[in-house]
Amino acid sequence: MSNFWVFGYGSLMWNPGFDHLRAEQAFLRGAHRSLCVYSWVHRGTQERPGLVFGLDNGGACRGIAYQVAEEIWPQTLDYLRAREQATMVYKEHWHHIELDGGDKVEALVYMVDHSHPQYAGALPLEKQLDIVTGAIGKSGANPEYIINTADHLEEMGIPDTNLAWLAARLKDL
């Protein structure tokens, strides 16, 4: 059995992009999902940044843990670094997470770097809406990212009232 796990909390939940042996809802303590990263590549540009999720300090986060086969771990890690580290706004960390089945495993997580210029911090919802609306990057439109993540969290039974509010406004536009 492989001991390589990746914790997804944003687009990795609905678009992991790598092969995995198993995917299971999981719980991470000590960090929370936050729309706190200015996107200069995937969902915006430096001239017109978007917003994407980061794991920020404190609280807890529900997401999806992916178990990756040992023989493909090096390629998976290369893929994740290319995807998540395009501008080095995240730091790789290993954190203990609890799978819904009760098992506790150590997983690779991408935590936001507070010292990076793309760190947006906690923004008011109206400001988030203003930033997200119209932002487009190499992976597509920023509203699509927000709506997909909100819809996936809802399907998984994970409440996020702020994200639901934002997604509802974006769907109305």
TrEMBL record:
Pfam families: ChaC (PF04752). InterPro entries: ChaC, GGCT-like, GGCT-like_sf. It comes from the Bacteria. PANTHER family: CATION TRANSPORT PROTEIN CHAC-RELATED, GLUTATHIONE-SPECIFIC GAMMA-GLUTAMYLCYCLOTRANSFERASE 2. GO terms for molecular function: glutathione specific gamma-glutamylcyclotransferase activity. GO terms for biological process: glutathione catabolic process. One of its GO terms (cellular component) is cytoplasm. This is glutathione-specific gamma-glutamylcyclotransferase. Keywords: Lyase. Its EC number is 4.3.2.7. It is an enzyme of class 4 (lyase).
